[in-house]
Design goal:
By secondary structure, the protein is mainly alpha-helical. The protein folds into two domains: 121 residues; 117 residues. 70% of the residues lie in helices and 0% in strands. Pfam families: FANCI_HD1, FANCI_S1, FANCI_S2. This is Fanconi anemia group I protein. InterPro entries: FANCI, FANCI_HD1, FANCI_S1, FANCI_S2. GO terms for molecular function: DNA polymerase binding.
């Protein structure tokens, strides 16, 4: 149960793929140590560490746990690091994820399944990963569809809980906090597009217009209230507006798409 030194961590991940005979319990134990120790890995070493983990996962080594661990780490535990450097590191990690999914589409399925099965896994990095995976042709519609479903579900739950007379206040507060988290995560992922993650920009544009179409189709059950919940129409406009501001190269594309709607 001793803690591994950070230099040993990546080596152990790299070596683990040479031990296919490990049973599931041993694999889980190894990953637990790896994700416990990752907090101490130097920032510049994180991308190569994640790359080794993705290679390991592609060999069939606890794929869901690897994906969940990576998303969980960058979604919350990494927040204590220097923000500006971390954003650049995350950009590199997203490229690694994108490449890994192209090589092994089953990893993309794990990303999608993770978000489907665990709403607690929803954070700005999950959103960024889904935007990145959406660039892989096979997962384009599925990844963005999962994001839209998560958002619409959060809005729907919030609206229902707000209007429900008999629901306890703590449950109402829970649905309010969740919808705020989903909105905040989406907007943060969009605003961070400028940090070495240009490859996700087309996904963000597509998603922004996808949300606007939901409004046009009347499927959004629009809500916007004094509690600061934006609602789908304002959120979609804010997503496209943020992208317009932070990414010069998107402006013509956004303007052109607006013309044809």
């Amino acid at each position: 149960s001793c803690e591994w030194q950070k230099g040993l961590l990546t080596k152990m991940v790299s070596l683990a793929k040479e031990f296919p005979f490990l049973d599931k319990a041993r694999k889980s134990e190894l990953l637990e140590k790896v994700f416990f120790g990752i907090k101490g890995v130097d920032l510049q070493d994180l991308p190569s560490h994640v790359y080794q983990l993705l290679v390991l996962a592609s060999k069939g080594f606890c794929k869901r746990e690897v994906i969940g661990g990576v998303v969980g780490f960058f979604g919350s535990k990494a927040e204590t690091r220097v923000a500006s450097v971390l954003r650049q590191i995350e950009g590199t990690v997203l490229l690694h994820v994108n490449f890994a999914v192209k090589q092994d589409p089953s990893l993309g399925q794990e990303v999608v399944a993770l978000v489907k099965s665990d709403l607690g896994a929803f954070n700005h990095f999950t959103v960024a990963v889904l935007f990145s995976v959406a660039r892989v042709r096979k997962f384009g519609e599925n990844s963005l569809g999962i994001l839209r479903t998560a958002l619409l579900t959060a809005y729907n739950d919030y609206r229902l809980s707000k209007d429900c007379k008999w629901l306890p206040d703590e449950l109402k507060e829970e649905s309010f906090q969740h919808v705020k988290l989903v909105e905040k995560s989406l907007l943060r992922a969009v605003s961070e597009c400028r940090y070495g993650r240009e490859h996700v920009v087309p996904s963000v544009i597509q998603f922004g217009f996808m949300l606007l179409e939901s409004v046009e189709e009347g499927r959004s059950n629009e809500l916007s209230d004094s509690n600061g919940v934006l609602g789908i129409e304002k959120l979609s406009i804010k997503i496209l507006g943020t992208l317009f501001e932070v990414h010069d190269m998107t402006r013509n594309e956004i303007i052109e798409q607006c013309k044809f709607r």
